[in-house]
Amino acid sequence: MGIGRLSDGLAPTPPMGWNSWNRFGIQINERLVLETAEAMVESGMRDAGYRYVVIDDGWMAPERDRNGDFVADPAKFPRGIAALAERVHALGLRFGIYTDAGTRTCQGLPASLGYEFRDARRFAEWGVDYVKVDWCHTDGLSPRACYAKWAMAIHAARRPIVLSICEWGRARPWEWAGTLGHLWRTCWDIQPEWSSVTAILDRQADLHAYSGPDHWNDPDMLEVGNGLSDGEDRAHFALWAMLAAPLMAGNDLRQMSDDVRRVLTANEIVAIDQDARGMQARRIRREEDTEVWVRGLAGTRAIAVALLNRGSEDRELSAGLDEVGFAATDVVRVRDLWLRSDIGARRREIVSTVPSHSAAVLRVTAY
Ligand code: GAL
């Protein structure tokens, strides 16, 4: 494995999908996964770009088998993981799974320390396309060495598998994980609360230099549809898209409201996340309750601007063209990506009224 970023083409844009953890914890089973995969298709999420259906902690039986192999919990997954992956694949989706780099998972189940090659091989045999490797019960271990071993194990298993590094940002993984995995957590676990979304957002502001095609900062999975207000869901989703974050839905796809479905399948916001240039947004202005985030997009002189209102009242927010990288005298074309409507030509500044705890996203192009 050479020095430098991964460039195996497995995650040219941030991975998108669904993960069981945020909504279901360890209460997962075969039926939930299949119904979720079906809902992903029926809701239009697959067409919007969501691909990976990932089971998190809680899928494994309390002990390995006599050979030392992982076994799925027979009560939760009676037909086993390979059969499940096959059914997920048949829907045009990909299948992901979870393990932990230490001696036990965070929920006390068997984990992979000393079994990395065996587990990667088994995952490959099962048809796994994505592995999240967590960091509980790792006293005294070096994250860099452990995840390097995982990268080698996956390589040796000879199946294209996305490696999701879940070390919570403690050992500054943005400085070393890009050579090993496709995404790495930058922070502690997200909660379905506005204060958690904004606290995590603050931690991403200095990390934009580390992210790019095949190596993404991961500010954790989405809480859209898990109890935030509609405006908060939009702000959370919009800012994760600005950050070029992996978009892993974490709600119950089988019974989401139209509002929630509209957020998750907002094509023009998703397109920002998936922009081919893979440039994570920078926060260019921060006032007490308002922020301006900017990211460059593929194409000539195109950018996305998010105007975030963290305050409790609706506000008119603006950003000067010279602030966001144009000349003050330029004439630009502005489109509101939530409203899916062209605002038209603008000079000097762009303006939007943003509800409390919400964010507008504008696409700005030079004429
Ligand atoms: C945490 C991880 C969560 C989830 C959980 C499972 O360490 O950050 O995303 O995977 O473990 O126990």
Description:
The chain is of the alpha/beta class. The protein folds into two domains: 16-273, Aldolase class I (TIM Barrel, Alpha-Beta Barrel); 282-366, Immunoglobulin-like (Sandwich). The protein contains ten helices and 16 strands. It has helices at residues 21-24, 30-42, 45-48, 80-90, 116-126, 143-157, 194-204, 230-242, 258-264, 267-273, and strands at 16-19, 52-54, 94-100, 130-134, 162-165, 183-185, 216-218, 247-249, 282-286, 290-296, 302-309, 315-320, 331-336, 341-347, 349-354, 358-366. The protein has an eight-stranded parallel beta sheet. It has a six-stranded antiparallel beta sheet with strand order 9-10-11-16-13-14, with helices on one face. A two-stranded antiparallel ribbon has the order 12-15. The radius of gyration is 21 Å and the shape is globular. The mean pLDDT is 97. The protein binds beta-D-galactopyranose.
Rg estimate, integer Å: 21 Å
Discrete helix count = 10
Task: Describe the global form.
Answer: globular
Uncertain runs with pLDDT below 50, 5 residues or more?
none
Fraction in helix: 25-40%
Number of domains: 2
SSE layout:
Layout: E1 16-19, H1 21-24, H2 30-42, H3 45-48, E2 52-54, H4 80-90, E3 94-100, H5 116-126, E4 130-134, H6 143-157, E5 162-165, E6 183-185, H7 194-204, E7 216-218, H8 230-242, E8 247-249, H9 258-264, H10 267-273, E9 282-286, E10 290-296, E11 302-309, E12 315-320, E13 331-336, E14 341-347, E15 349-354, E16 358-366
Parallel strand pairs: 1-2, 1-8, 2-3, 3-4, 4-5, 5-6, 6-7
Antiparallel strand pairs: 9-10, 10-11, 11-16, 12-15, 13-14, 13-16
The chain binds beta-D-galactopyranose (GAL).
